[in-house]
Amino acid sequence: MGEGGPGHSGSVSGSLPIAHGGDLHAARALFPEAPAPWVDLSTGINPVPYPCPPLEASAFRRLPSPADLAALNAAAARAYGVADPAGIVAAPGTQILIETLPRLWPPARVAVVGPTYAEHAAAWGRAGHAVAAVTDLGADADVMVVVNPNNPDGRTWDAAALLACAERLALRGGLLVVDEAFADLEAVASLGPHLRPGLVVLRSFGKTYGLAGLRLGFALAEPAFAARIAEALGPWAVSGPALAIGRAALADADWRRTAAAARSADAGRLDRMIARAGGRVVGGTCLFRTADFSDGPGLFGRLGAAGIYVRRFEAAPGRLRFGLPADKTEWCRLSRVLR
């Protein structure tokens, strides 16, 4: 899943733009007098990035080789619990996978469990499918899309329930898409080890490793469908630097464990600050917290005037989503406003 959330309802056909986090140009336009530098808390990206290894100059000069891609896919398979690396498809970010999957599927009734990341419904709608928003896994549909953990409320789904849904859909030639963009640092049972026909799992690299600009993501699927996705993306879909950095990071299980513990502690600290400001945390993950306030628009304005950008939601004006500050200075700036 991309870095935004359902901040703009958009349209299923894609005729209206969808607002996303991370747009500091929009923040500066809203608050031209705000002090710099901005504290961007509008995304759910790890603010403490993975330390990129030194790269050989050849990674920038030559086309990525099949061996480089195979090495990345093998590292991803180990990290995500996928038995066969042939079930891994590396892509330049999960957003392109969200756009690609609907174009590989015949016209279908698509149910998106939400409210959630708006690009899923928009992408299936742009591809000509009939899309409906639903609240649970029991909807009558040919294709279902579930974000687990969900953005922006952090709702999670039991693996057994998701696998039962995938089985039900597969029996009639359907598809379950499970977007696990925020699963890496959470106590969520991934479906990566349980791939089967009729199931595709999406994994984000940039959020977990704090390297969203690298543009790297993965689809996990049974090998035959994985091959179709890879063919649709075309050759050299992932850059040489992304292949090298992704391979190193995915192999570093110790870093992931340390990051999960540290970001969980940060999320708890943020919850306490939100509570002191009169907010009620309604969900989230260890990379973002979503809360309701009696005067959400007023707080959004005060934060913006102080050079702090958070996510707001058109359909829920009292609701704000906070990413994690990156360092002591950012924590102090946020604390001053929330006090």
What is the molecular shape? globular
- Biggest sheet features: 7 strands, mixed
Helix/strand order: HEHHEHEHEEHEEHEHHHEEHEEEH
Helical content, roughly? 25-40%
Unreliable residue stretches: 1-14
The computed structural class is alpha/beta
Strand runs, count: 13
Strand order of the largest sheet: 2-8-7-6-5-3-4
Provide a count of the helices: 12
CA distance, first residue to last residue: 33 Å
Residue-averaged pLDDT: 94
Strand content: 15-25%
Radius of gyration: 20 Å
Description:
The chain has 339 residues and is α/β, with parallel strands linked by helices. It has 12 helices and 13 strands.
Task: List the keywords.
339 residues, alpha/beta, seven-stranded mixed sheet, four-stranded antiparallel sheet, 12 helices, globular, disordered N terminus
